[in-house]
Structures are given as C-alpha cells and as structure tokens.
Specification:
Oligomer: single chain
Distance between the termini: 45 Å
Shape: elongated
Radius of gyration: 19 Å
Order of helices and strands: EHEHEHEHEHEHHHHH
Number of strands: 6
Structural class: alpha/beta
Largest sheet: 6 strands, parallel
Number of domains: 2
Length: about 210
C-alpha cells in the first residue's frame, strides 16, 4: 500500500492488449506497480516490488503457467494475495488455482466494478469468487467427483508415461476402443478435457505419482 493508502497491484497476462486494458482500468483506483507477461516475471516482480495483490492469468505461454506462478508467489515471504483473472472456468482449473493459494477467481467478462471490489477484498484476505465459480466449488464440495477405478488409474499411469492409446492398449492387453472409453470416463471424473490436464490433475490429487529418473 502506498503512502496515500492506495493498493499496489501487479498485472500478469501474456497478451499486451489485455495488460494495457487492465492497467488503464485499475489505475483509476489503484497503483499498478508493474506488468508481467510470464509466470517467471510475475514471481520475480512480486518478490521485488511487494504488491498487495497480483492479478494472475492462468495461461501464460512458454514457461510456468498461472497456477505454478501463483504457488511460487504465495510461497514468498510476506506474500501478496493472488486473484486469478482468466477465461478458463473448468472445475479442474478452479480447484488447481485455489489449491495453489489463490484468494480469488474471476472471469475476464466480470464487470469493472466487480474487479475493483475483488482487488480490495483480496487485499483484506477475503475470498473472492465469481458467482458461477462459487456455485461450481459448492457443487464440488457437496458432491465430490467419483473415484477412479483401478483400471482407470492404470491408464493414467501410462498417460503420464507418454504412451499413446495404441501403446496403452498393448500394455494392458485391451482394445484401443476400450482405452478411449476409459479416457472419456477419466476426463469426466476429473473435470478435464485433455490428456495433459488429466495427468496434471491426477498428480495434484495424488491419484498417481510421476516416476523420477
């Protein structure tokens, strides 16, 4: 916080136009201390400039993503609060961000006054969620995702090893069509849409462990 009481904000997004727009919007009420285009820059600026709040996008191009950047920022001494501001609203994205330490999660179509209020509330350590996101989390807590079967965990292990559907089928002595059916069920249970997201979510939930060389 500045001498005149203004909150200090770090804007993190890999799109220059988005950063420009957010900075112009936020400067009406806050001091934007810096803009970062990568997760690595976000962590470095957060450590050096000590903002009160970091607005963090999830997808940041090359390098670490917004979730990992959030985790590292929150691990800093006397860390700033982190509010995720993104277009991604899948259950897996929300859970990963919150588990990484994000105080809030807003979508980029949020009204400007909602964004400003989110920054103020986050600076106080209050949880800030878009209404749709809050409902998603509530449903997740009330109705946890179904457990994966032993076969589904085996397939996830092979996915983590980089095997194709055909290679998984050969390894497990099942048909490629059966592998695809299991993948559909795995994606549904984990709330993801891609193979990479399935592996990442499974590791974070400790369903599988990545082997180390």
């Amino acid at each position: 916080m500045t001498a005149d009481g203004a909150l200090r904000v770090l804007v993190v997004d890999d799109h220059p136009v988005v950063r420009f727009g957010l900075t112009g919007l936020l400067q009406r009420d806050f001091e934007v201390v810096a803009e970062a285009a990568t997760g690595e820059d976000a962590v470095r600026y957060a450590a050096a400039l000590k903002p009160d709040v970091v607005l963090m996008d999830l997808q940041l191009g090359a390098g670490i993503d917004g979730v990992e950047a959030t985790r590292r920022v929150r691990a800093l001494p006397d860390p700033p609060e982190v509010v995720v501001l993104t277009t991604y609203d899948s259950d897996a994205d929300v859970v990963r961000a919150v588990e990484a330490g994000a105080t809030g999660y807003l979508l980029k179509d949020s009204p400007p006054d909602e964004l400003a209020e989110a920054v103020r509330r986050a600076a106080l350590g209050q949880t800030v969620l878009s209404p749709d996101i809050a409902q998603r989390l509530l449903r997740t807590v009330r109705a946890p995702a179904p457990a994966l079967s032993r076969r589904e965990v085996e397939i996830l292990d092979h996915l983590a090893g980089g095997l194709s559907n055909r290679e998984i089928a050969r390894a497990l002595f099942i048909s490629e069509a059966t592998v695809k059916t299991h993948l559909v069920r795995i994606f549904d249970k984990l709330g993801v849409e891609t193979r990479t997201a399935a592996v990442t979510t499974a590791v974070e939930r400790r369903i599988i462990r990545l082997s180390r060389p």
